[in-house]
Amino acid sequence: MIVYPAMDLMGGRVVRLRQGRFDEATDYSADPESGLRAFAVAGAEWAHVVDLDGARAGEPVQHERIAQLARGLPLKLQVGGGVRSREHVEHLLDSGVERVVVGSVAVRAPEMVRDWIAAFGAERITLALDVRMTAAGPQVAVSGWTEVTDASLWTVADYFPGARHLLLTDIARDGELAGPNFALLDDAVNRLPQLEVQASGGVSSLVDIERLTTSGVIVGKALWEGRVQLEDAIARARA
Description:
Blueprint: E1 2-10, E2 13-18, E3 21-27, H1 32-41, E4 46-51, H2 52-57, H3 63-72, E5 76-80, H4 86-94, E6 99-102, H5 104-108, H6 110-120, E7 125-134, E8 137-142, E9 147-152, H7 153-158, E10 165-170, H8 182-191, E11 196-200, H9 206-211, E12 216-219, H10 221-224, H11 230-238
Parallel strand pairs: 1-4, 1-12, 4-5, 5-6, 6-7, 7-10, 10-11, 11-12
Antiparallel strand pairs: 1-2, 2-3, 7-8, 8-9
C-alpha cells in the first residue's frame, strides 16, 4: 500500500478542511516546500497536493506554485483542485507533476476525461469520486461536495474502463478522525478490481491503515495533528 501524505493549499498556506467546508479550515502555519521535503525525509515517495482555491474557483489558482514545488522536490506529486480542461492537465504534467486528479469534471464531462486518459495514459490521471452514503448506496457529489448527483459510485466508475487510479472519499468521514468507511472501501476493492483504490477520509491511526485493503491511503489531518507519524504509517503500510 502506498501512503500519500496530504497537503491542502489555500492562499499559499497549508490548511485542512472539515468535510470540505471552507468556513471550517484549520491553518497549520507550515511552509509548503518545507512540509513536502519533510515528507520525503520521512520516506514518502508520493504526496497528494490540492489547490483548494482552485477547487472553489473552478479553475487553477495555485498551479504555478505547485509547478515550482514539483520541479524542485524528490517526491512524486499527485495534484488536484480546479482541473477543468486538457490545458490544465498538460500544464501540470509538463511542470513535473506525476499524476493529475480530476473530480467534478469526470462526472460533468465524462467523455472529455475518457479522452484525457487515452491521451496521457492511465498512470497520469486519478479519478476522484466523492460520495455521500444514502439509502440507495454511495451517491457521487460534485461542486465541492455541495451537490449530490443521482449517479452511483459504481455507475460512474464503470464509465471509465481505461482508468487505473481511483481516489475514493466518503465525505462524512473527511476531517473527522473517526476512521475510514471500511465497508465502502472493501466493496470498492472487490467490485472495481481494475482500479487501484486510494482510501481518503477519516484515517486517524496506524490501526486504521492496517485494516485497509486498498492500494493506497491519503493521510491528512491525522498527520498534521500528530496523531500519526509518517515514518510509522509508511512502515505499517509496507508490512
